[in-house]
Write a structure and sequence with these properties.
Layout: H1 2-26, H2 37-44, H3 54-74, H4 90-101, H5 103-118, H6 120-132, H7 150-158, H8 165-173, H9 187-195, H10 199-215, H11 217-228, H12 235-255, H13 260-269, H14 280-285, H15 289-309, H16 316-337, H17 342-359, H18 369-392, E1 402-403, E2 406-407, H19 411-414, H20 434-442, H21 447-450, H22 452-465, H23 481-485
Length: 499
Amino acid sequence: MSELYKKMIDEAMAAQHADVNVLKARRGKHFTLKDARPYVEAVEKMTVGPKQSAAVINLHKESVKTHFNVLSGLTRHVKPEDDPFVEHYQTPVILEILRDQDAKFAKSLEIFVDSIKTHEAIIGREAARCYAGFYGPTCVVDFALMPGSTSNVVNQVLTKTDIPVAHKQAILAAKSWGMNTSYGIGDLFAKRIEAGDSLAEASRKEVRQLQDLYRNPVEAQAKLMQKAGMKSFSERRYMENYRKGMEKTVKAAIDDNVHYGNIATIPAYCVGDISHHISQSTYNMCKDDVIMATIEAVTNVIEKTLLAAVPSIKNPYQLLNVATGSSAAATEYLLELDAFNAPMIVDLLTKRYHNLVMIKPTRGAAAELHNCDFMDMIYRGWKILDKAERVKNGSGQPLVPKIDGIPIDLSPIHENEILMNPQRYAYPACAITVRASSLMRLADYPCLLTSEPITATMMTNIIALDKKTVAAPVRACKSCATACLVGSRHQYCQYREAV
């Protein structure tokens, strides 16, 4: 299995380095679509390993290639306000292909759409809770089933819907790692309440919006983009051309008996690097030397840790766990170099969230999404470092945090000249918040710390080994930072009840 693990590391790190290298070279400059070519080239080099499904790997590779080609044919530049949506056009298309290829799945979608209306009480309650900030900070598009997420609400309805389990799983997956449209639970409800609708009226409109996502996914996404004022390219032409490019690949995956839930998710989670991670907004953010250095150093921590871990890895999921655990520890370590830690930041961002609810009642449903990702990451890192610090005690030995028994190599942080010299980036005598303040910028955008390119590439490799088992959403407690440190919302999670 060592060869497989090495392949997974090489492919995942190639994707990450493609992003990081472009950002380092182009930060502060004008973004054009051709800038993302190195990421496409990295993905094109992905191979099919022993016992892996070629159909699964091709869903990833062909989606990236099709996304890049279609987008490049429509525009040269995507403005920052439009780049969050670029990974939301794929799943609607894939769902419609699955529906058109399988009459039974089409029927299940119809039944689910009707069930949304039948269970308006659930929709109204959850939308109201999100509007009021009942759950605290949430990931409206969650890769698990945390309270306040769209996947959590979809799962609640699916558990009361009489359709085949495999179809339930596909529908659920399509609103987790798969991103069926840009809509998040409660967004319309909040806006209608603030516009003067009654609770009942707002609830009915929320139901109709959710129904539309599954009845007409492509049209629903097009309408959402029109309302959002997306002008960088034609969303309708994109989805039309994306379907032409992907239909053959999706049919091949169906013929290979890949779980529909995996077919619905893989094509979406791998395309975001093109015009989202490699994008104008990221170029603007990475003008800050410390932010750029942070991304570089954490990337190198992940890579050095993974490569050294290969002989000790027992299964592919452990490799993914080491990748995400090492990045969590590295990020928390940077915070602690400035005398901050996860509990402090979680407390701060959670308090800020509740004030944000009052100041911006019509805030976007995804406003605090990445804050949640960031808090969960540093909380995990804090637990890893806390254990290591207890072991180190007063020995004077180097700190060696471990994840699954694998040592995490933090040396790239100490070898980074920028991170080790914060006095060069503030008033030198008082430069005690430089690294932490840069991390607070990344709290709004931690995608290359968590890291999404690495996770996506590894997940495709893992799914390719077990194509018939749905991978998304994660059916496990993800130890939400706010739930563990601030609030008591565990009873509202759905991970044990996932269809």
